[in-house]
Write a structure and sequence with these properties.
Structural class of chain B: mainly alpha
Number of strands of chain A: 0
Strand content of chain B: under 5%
Largest sheet of chain A: none
Largest interface: A-B, 62 and 61 residues
Number of domains of chain B: 2
CATH architecture of chain A: Up-down Bundle
Helix content of chain A: over 70%
Order of helices and strands of chain A: HHHHHHH
Largest sheet of chain B: 2 strands, antiparallel
CATH topology of chain A: Four Helix Bundle (Hemerythrin (Met), subunit A)
CATH superfamily of chain A: Cytochrome c oxidase, subunit III, four-helix bundle
Oligomer: heterodimer
Shape of chain B: flat
């Protein structure tokens, strides 16, 4: 099904790992993601405890419409694929393809944030703000923390795009693109659990 | 795809006995099949969960268990296919804290949820 890349030696490792210092930074970034995972885990735990405490506010079933949520899921899953493709082409030294897939990732991420903000504004107009009930507090804090991570990720991606234009694919910009891809896939995983446990479970 | 998995022996440190499971693996392909299949499977897993819920395909408790298993499959897919989980310069040390973080995360959520099932008014 697959063959080693032509012209690349069997034991050559990707450049972002070939530099020892940059490789250490990738390991360090994994450690950051673990701590972030525990932050999200605690927010999920809070949501799990409060999701049935709706007070006088709407229940998850009354509040959620799956349409925008499915759109957000598609945007984020696709952007996870496009950043994966950017890393694939980064390892082939194809800067033009990296640009294309990376810009696609940023656009899809922005689409996700816009959809989510629109969704939140809709809820607020319905009177479903985060001080109405335990469920809504847990919901807005959990989903909002994820959304702010994505927003920060887009700003990070824009600065990285600027660096790629100025410096091309060096050891450092490769490592940065790789750690960005780790961050982005991580946010996709968190979203899958939000989609499952917050939205789908809300429709039981 | 196993033919493309390569074991990298780092020049300054080879695997210590007992740590072979942390040996890094790298993949390289002439065409990004792994990424494309990963994307297709991620869509399949998502829409499987969605359809099961929309159709109320099974009893609620079982349905929750099934969609969480589908989400875990999705997480494994993202980690394995897109995050290059096993890549590293030396031993893939990130695997150990990752396992610990999963343990803490699911312990935290699972126990919080479990204790709410009693509904004894403590909450």
């Amino acid at each position: 099904m697959s063959t080693p890349v032509v012209g690349e030696s069997q034991h050559q490792i990707p450049l972002e790992f070939a530099n020892e210092e940059e490789s250490l930074k990738i390991t360090g970034f994994w450690m950051f993601l673990m701590t972030d995972m525990i932050i999200f885990a605690s927010l999920f735990a809070v949501f799990a405890v409060y999701r049935s405490r709706v007070a006088a506010g709407p229940t998850p079933d009354q509040l959620f419409h799956l349409g925008p949520v499915i759109l957000e899921t598609l945007l984020l899953l696709t952007s996870s694929f496009t950043i994966g493709m950017a890393v694939y082409y980064m390892r082939k030294d194809n800067l033009a393809a990296v640009y294309g897939w990376f810009i696609a990732t940023i656009v899809l991420g922005a689409g996700f944030v816009i959809t989510e903000v629109h969704d939140f504004v809709t809820y607020v107009h319905l009177g479903a703000t985060w001080h109405v009930s335990g469920f809504l507090s847990g919901f807005f804090v959990l989903v909002g923390t994820h959304g702010s991570h994505v927003t920060f990720g887009i700003m990070w991606a824009l600065t990285l795009l600027f660096q790629l234009r100025r410096r091309g694919l060096t050891d450092i910009t490769r490592r940065k693109l790789f750690t960005f891809s780790l961050y982005w896939h991580f946010l996709d995983i968190v979203w899958v659990f939000i989609f499952t446990f917050v939205y789908l479970y809300g429709k039981f | 795809m196993s033919d493309s998995l390569q074991q990298h022996e780092s020049s300054e440190e080879s695997m210590e006995p007992g740590l072979e499971f942390l040996a890094p693996k790298f993949e390289s392909e002439a065409f990004p099949w792994t990424q494309i299949m990963g994307y297709v499977f991620s869509l399949v897993l998502t829409f499987a969960a969605l359809l099961l819920v929309i159709n109320h395909a099974m009893a609620p408790t079982l349905l929750l268990a099934v969609i969480i298993v589908l989400a875990l499959g999705q997480a494994g897919l993202q980690l394995g296919v897109f995050m290059h989980l096993r890549e590293s310069r030396g031993p893939a040390w990130q695997l150990l804290p990752l396992a610990l973080a999963f343990f803490i995360a699911f312990g935290l959520i699972g126990v919080s949820y479990w204790i709410m099932l009693f509904k004894t008014g403590v909450s």
